[in-house]
Amino acid sequence: MLHRIAYELKMEPLLFQLSVFCLFNRILGDPAAPVAYKELVTFAKFVLSRFFALAAQNDKAYVELLFWKNVGAVREMTEGYRKPGEEDSAGSKKRVTWTEEEEEELRQLYMQHCKAEDADVIDSLLPRLQNPHRTRRQVANHLVQMGLVHSIKDLKKERSVQRPSG
Predict the structure, then answer these.
(1) Around Cβ 12, how many Cβ atoms within 10 Å?
(2) What's the count of helices (H) and strands (E) in the chain, helices before strands?
(3) Alpha helices, H only, the chain
(4) What phi and psi values does residue 106 have, to the nearest 5 degrees?
(5) Which of 93, 27, 81 is nearest to 57 (CA)?
(6) In this predicted model, what pLDDT tens digit does every residue of 24-62 receive, in sequence order?
(7) What is the pLDDT of residues 99-128, one digit of tens each?
(8) Closest CA relative to residue 120, chosen from 140, 148, 105
(9) What's the chain's Rg over C-alpha atoms?
(10) Closest CA to 40 of 32, 31, 28, 50
(11) What is the model's pTM?
């Protein structure tokens, strides 16, 4: 299982943890290990060589030994750490950029909507935007960011509540 994680999936940084390295040290320090634990010795040397290769590029690799990592932390460790608010390759914390033209288009459409007062602001704006890839959440967040709407709660769909007749 560890071979699959480290070698086949190329996620050996998941094993860059101090307790694992202590175990590798005990295995490699055993005089009978090269014969009795041949595969473990080869595996430990492989993982350690990958760690030291990464540590040559990433000064924080030694600190990372103190913590167990998930796939996101492994990517940051190998590909570089991101700054707060910066876009992640996995998509978390995505910041959507809007061009000035798109902002002006959104502003004009919102002002037209205010005059017409349709039922739902976002539903009336989305099909009229030139960029078809904008999501409801992106448009709502940007309206708030531009100061056209005080809060996203102002844009929530009003749900029709059906009361039982009785």
Answers:
(1) 21
(2) 9, 0
(3) 2-3, 18-29, 33-36, 38-57, 61-64, 71-79, 100-116, 121-125, 136-145
(4) -65, -40
(5) 81
(6) 999 999 999 888 989 999 999 999 999 999 999 998 999
(7) 888 889 989 988 888 777 666 788 888 888
(8) 140
(9) 27
(10) 28
(11) 0.50
